[in-house]
Methanethiol oxidase (Baryphthengus martii), 398 residues
Amino acid sequence: PREEVAYVTCTYRETCNDQPDFLATIDLNPRSPCYGQVIHRLPMPNLKDELHSSGWSAGCTCFDSVTAKRNKLILPSLISSRIYVVEVGSQCRAPKICKMIEPVDVFWKCNKGYLATVHSLPNGDVLIANMGDAAGNGKGGFVVLDGDTFELKGNWENECEAPPTGCDFWYQPRHNVLISSAGVVPRIAGRGFNPDDLKKGVFGRRLNVWNLSCRTLTQCFDLGEDSLPLSVKFLHNPDAAEGYVSCALSGIVYRFYKCEANNWAVEEVIRIPAKDVSGWIMPKMPAFTVDLIISLDDKYLYLSNWLHGDIRQYELSKNCKPRLVGQVFVGGSILRGGPVTVCRDEELKCQPEPLVVKCKRVYGGPSKMQLSLDGKRLYVTNSFYSTWDKQFYPNLVR
């Protein structure tokens, strides 16, 4: 059935507005007089959390439990490292916080911080990927919450297996594999994007392959210096042994696949060229692909290009590389009349026009995405990371 509400994490950090972040509930029923409007705000009890990605307490992968229901939202905080559990089952239009895990517990019990991405595990527990340690140094890995009580259980991976950085992950239980991406060193990248940080190990470059049941690191792929692999997705077919990872700074999408026994391989399938520009922080603007999603029928792949401003739709095929079949601009840094001038563009003949919706100019660029269950609507947020939002899209944080 068509979804009737959407939940969106909203942050006030870096806006000079001293208010707590909140979870917005948006009415998606086209027959409702409030269609497309925020109908409820759930403020967090603390300041400057920077709510990032949200995730369900249970999903279709929880095959060990036939009673698992999607009635809790897990909200990790990227900056404070706090975790909120929100009850949405009893009052979906006005959710409430039912549990909170303080940063000190995450620091002491797991030696982790800067929490990023949430997914439920096959046994019903909740897995959260992190970017760093308590001090903001780069440190990948995962923390686990009990799927029933939402108590913090500890680290998921063996401590010696923690990669240098972390960000996103996905898994295929039938192939006993979990694949995770890299990320950034929080204490340095958190100051903003600095070209001087390139080639200094601030931006991740690894794709990590894990044994799902043993929780051990089995393979690592170096995708190139400052490639910054962020978003990872498997195909939805539970028998499929392949997926895709998007690299933000290189503009490359790799396909990863099982090649023999338990070994995996990667191949480049998409490359979005950088644009030669003036009036920007560097002479070349990379295709900063924040998010990647795949339609439920495994026919289409969608990419959000936060800096250039476009959302791309690729048709997937077993016999060839993904083919670009759709593109729409919803903001970005290369718009006509803006401070950035495109000097050379391998793809576009002219700079796109600004996006105006209901007489309001849309600032920022496409970031996180969610596809509706029937595949007919794509929901997009325009904030990536508060300090980078303020740097590249100052009108957005105002």
